[in-house]
């Protein structure tokens, strides 16, 4: 199937591994770019991060590498580096997350690549960047959550700092990398020149600290763990109903009046303790008692549906299987099925050039022969740096 989408004119060499880089590559591939995933001889390590597995690759890998074509090249060998340069010759984007200094040691650093391919957009995902006090150090999502302060504001009130239960830093780093690529490509349309982009887990982790950093800038107070409560908004927390917890996110007085009406206690909105958001914050514990006393008469599901249709932002606390089974999830095309593969859809919806899903994540080195043929490259010449080739694709030595 010929890819379609807003990026269908682009070719991307994705030499990244694990999460941030591959997620960026999948975003570009979902929107039409021809993304060639280039793996080392041992493969992307996330292929083994299971169970569960599909066709020998873990679900972790499956979730980040849809719509890509896969090859394997040993870039540590001179012939492998020559092959990479051949692939980059007509590429628009080079995406990688090699340890800082590795490409430079191989003669493939930013300056060398820009001199050889002046139109190439070179995007690097790294832990801390190439320079500075932590320059060149490795980074993984959870460790960055700790170092950047995200853990310090996540956890039960007064309890221990806790990791956010998903790789939020890696994901936002991949998103920012994709955004940076699109920015650089847009600028290239005017200048005719590519450029180097670096998105780091550290920078992205720090950028996520809203509103805690703005609060600190103004007040000098260091935030701690507050459970589900918000430091600036009230009521904004989990509240117990008759059957299950309900999360309320009430951002203004109008919504608060509607909430009080919806739970059968309209007089609560006229209580001077709760007249404004600042008042509600100062009396958050008392407000929680009042709200939960009224909400104890309601089942969670029906109350959630009633309130949100009244204009009160809220949501029942649901499990993963409940999210998948929700008809709205299906309606928004957030579940993708390609044969035995099931993945999560793109949240980016374009009206004229919509996302498309044409291929499941590649098997290891699945498309090596295909990609080599397209570039007019001889398999036998590079056979020693092409692990994973199907024997039928490898000519016998004379």
Automatic annotation (TrEMBL):
Keyword Transferase appears in the UniProt entry: yes
Key words, A-Z: Transferase
SUPFAM superfamilies given in the database record: CoA-transferase family III (CaiB/BaiF)
Keyword flag Transferase: yes
Superkingdom field: Bacteria
GO function terms (MF aspect): CoA-transferase activity
PANTHER family cross-referenced by the UniProt entry: SUCCINATE--HYDROXYMETHYLGLUTARATE COA-TRANSFERASE
The name this protein goes by in its record: CoA transferase
Species the sequence originates in: Pseudosulfitobacter pseudonitzschiae
